[in-house]
Write a structure and sequence with these properties.
With 375 residues, the chain is α+β, with helices and mostly antiparallel strands. The chain folds into 2 domains: 12-237, Endonuclease III, domain 1 (Orthogonal Bundle), CATH 1.10.340; 254-374, Nucleoside Triphosphate Pyrophosphohydrolase (Alpha-Beta Complex). The protein has 16 helices and 7 strands. Strands 1, 2, 3, 4, 5, 6 and 7 form a 7-stranded mixed β-sheet that branches. The longest helix is centred in the middle third of the chain and has 19 residues, at 175-193.
Amino acid sequence: MQRKRRLKEKRPGGNSGRHTPAALVGPLLAWFAANARDLPWRRTRDPYAIWISEIMLQQTQVKTVIPYWERWMRELPTAQSLARARPGKVLKLWEGLGYYTRARNLQTAAQLIMDKHDGCFPEKFDAVLALPGIGRYTAGAICSIAFNQPTPILDGNVIRVLTRLFGIGENPRETKTNARLWSLAASLVQSAARVKRRGQNCSHLNQALMELGATVCTPRQPKCHLCPVRKSCAAFREDRTGQLPNLGRRAIATERRFAAFVVERSGRFLVQQRPAGVVNAHLWEFPNLETNTRPTAGPQLAKTLFNERPEAVKPLRQIRHTITRYRITMDVFRVEFANGAPDAIPNARWCSPAQLHKLAFPSAHRNILGMLARQ
């Protein structure tokens, strides 16, 4: 009987004593007050500004986001300005952040805010959640940070902190485990709401969890000696920080290969706009096609794409980059035609270098543009 009791007491994530969510709130709030990074969106409680930061921070590092956020807020400081902006301007401001559906959803949501909420960002969680491009995490973050509501959050950083704190070894992507993590996150922020101290406790508690995961409880080599709740952490006690969170095996990357062509006529370059409903919709790119052939097949690929045999094809460079689970290799060629260039490319435009720099390009094609500027 005693042996069973000892085993029960050692169970990771037990809810007794210092391991309860309520007992963690005080140390987390104190740590955040002393250690929070000075980020520009933390200097405001404007829900619009916080919304923009949260969407930009999805899949993107803080140091990358800061200049984008600052430029965005200068150019489009309100929901009204975003709703009325030209879509091309919105994409240009987003250029380089990737996942461009986020930018289009931002503008659609801003238009709904103008139409359905009289231009005021909604305060109720359900109304925020109903906006395009906003999921449960983002709605919770906005409501807690901007309005100090006890709404839970659960992103990658928070998942890592909670699985280690409570010794959760199951895959957090599984439905049951994910629900448990949301419940723990809710218990923490609701406990913060009950703390009898002045301040933005719900806001700061959620930000503390995110900050801890970003700066201390990192994926590799966590700085446990700096953690304010390490004495309550199951992974620290049991030397399992390297095993948690248990995210399972990574998906095998898929190799894809493209050929892109730089065509010039009278100082202008041929580019085309991607259609609606596809990846990187409405962005501009140099004419290209996907291929499984080697880069030496440039002349034949150019003929296939332009339906005309080129007069000369010169390899320029090779660009490698990764998008989600795809590893992409793009071979770039400069191509010349006897009659100047074909005109049969859909959604195409001839642009001067100055005009090209006003258009929004995916990152690989922006690299081509940069290469041309250096020539």
